[in-house]
Design a protein that fits this description.
Layout lengths: L6 E5 L3 H11 L3 E8 L2 E7 L6 E5 L7 H13 L3 E7 L2 H10 L3 E8 L5 E6 L5 E6 L1
Parallel strand pairs: 1-4, 5-8
Antiparallel strand pairs: 2-3, 3-4, 6-7, 7-8
Amino acid sequence: MALSISAMFVPVHDPDVALGFYRDALGLAVRNDVASGGFRWVTVGAPGQDVDIVLFQPHGGRSQADGDALLSLVTKGTLQAAIFRSDDLDATFEKVRASGAEVLQEPASQPWGVRDCAFRDPSGNLVRIAQA
């Protein structure tokens, strides 16, 4: 039996602003862009990978209270969106930094053996990028 990841969900305040980070800075491809009921979600992914990253608005499909609670967590920066891998961490770091993204950590070797860096996306989610 084979098991693989199909999709992951990242809450964002504004899909257009999120695209400036995930599409333009990270280089992910837009796979789907859907609007329904006053909300929008955009699916992006890395070329050559079948994993979809769904950028969604916290109140879409949720009660007002649940959407508010999720939005509060996003705004505080308490959620980790993803850990990406790059074959050239330094070049990726410079590209993302040049986009104006908030830098949390410049490329550094970690005690657990990985070399990585960290950013916040425009909604406050933690995004790490590791050397492949």
